[in-house]
Amino acid sequence: MNKSDTIRLCQILLNVPIPKTLVYDSKILTGYDGDTKKNIVTYSASNMTQKPTADATVMIKAPKLAIDKSVNQQTVSIGDKISYTVKASNTGNVALKNPYIVDTLPEGMEKPSNIRINLENNTSLTLSESQANANADGQYYLWNNDTRQLTVYLSSTKNLKSNYTASVYYDSKLLTGTDKEIKTNTAQLFGENDNGDNPKDSAPITVIGKPKLGIVKEASPTKVKVGEVVNYTVTLSNTGNAYAEKPIIKDILPEGMEKPENILLKGGFNLPIEEGSTNSNKWGEYYEWDEGTRTLTVYISQTDNQAPNSNRVLTYSSKVVQGTAGELKTNVATGSAANTTDKPSDKATVTIDRTMIWLHVKQEVVNKQNSVVLPTTGSLNLKNVDVANVSNQISESSMIIPSYKADTNQAFKTVAFIWNEEYEGYLPEVRIPELYTYSGYQLTTVEQTHQSVKRVNKLIPVIDYYTNSEYWLTVYIEPKISSDGPPFYNWDYKINDFGNIKFN
């Protein structure tokens, strides 16, 4: 008898002259498959001393439900994707109509994905979200982000038959959680005729915490002169969900920077720290300086570790004791901890301020001809321009430069300029004396012997003082005469007073 059926009990009353029959109906409201329900009737009358009884027993036929939930791993780290399996079974005598599973996920778990079902065979079907996308068997799922409930409708046409098991599979990624936190999600089975028999099962996971280190380095000021002090700030962050054990900052300073001073740790105890492990404070904090590798190593919270979602800030100062104008001094800080492979790094760069820039320049004559006077001076125009746009010129100046026979290793003339950050370039233009022609140039960033064989037979390019503050330039010219030689008289000879010309 199904428990939703109406029971009609007929009790025949005995020991009366005329038999009487009592008929009534009652609906079974609760009970499980295989349960028995016994109904006892008692007859009495005022002139009877005995009270005869009779009973009727019915057995309930209903679905008998069970659910089993499992997960492919019990310990999970942030970012791990885990797979759940939910098995719903019916061992009762009656099919469960319109079966569905409600699975409640805890906070910190991603919306389920790759949701599949296996109802009656060994083939898994991938389900779509919303009833509008249900397949031919009425299978689909819903996700409620507010209640964090996944509802999987197993079938609206096939039901969950007696002695059948339906399996649901899905994936979910762990997004947030704290170290050793237990996250439990519970699945429960429902149906149209479940009679309140809604078994549930859970699959807990334990979060394995990991520290996540980050580092930011800053310098102030970013432009300095030799002899000035740079203040550095290094922030080591732990945005993970576990303590960073024995965190360390290593900071490598460039050449020309003095040993760090005024070393202070903030973001916790805000105390100066001393050099050497024997001078560590009660939290095991101290620093070491290696002059050979120019490395500052700071040991942070060696006894207390660094908590999740916390920052420790290292500040120190260092004087610039050596450097050339325009030089970039970069140092790199790296963070680490004993229980993570994270080694984030960041750098800070300061520029040695360029108050002055220099040009060392001369002119040399190649292929000297005795028939042409060797000039002792040359003329050069310098246009101060924007390197990115040469036509953008701020000023122009002319200068007299020394002139020599090529490859005699004579001295340069040194010219100094005031550095202009917006107009970093100088464009040289050579004024060629009569009877000569331009024959190339040589430009170097270090002082060295210029040789005419190494000259570049092109126009002199813009000299970029952003990349270097000092250049050496040799301009080459050579005689330009016809096969008949130079003319007998040249006005430049007169006005420049080159001296008497002898005829042989």
TrEMBL record:
Residues 213-339 form the DUF11 domain. Residues 62-129 form the DUF7507 domain. Gene3D superfamilies: 2.60.40.740. PANTHER family: CELL SURFACE PROTEIN, LARGE CYSTEINE-RICH PERIPLASMIC PROTEIN OMCB. This is DUF11 domain-containing protein.
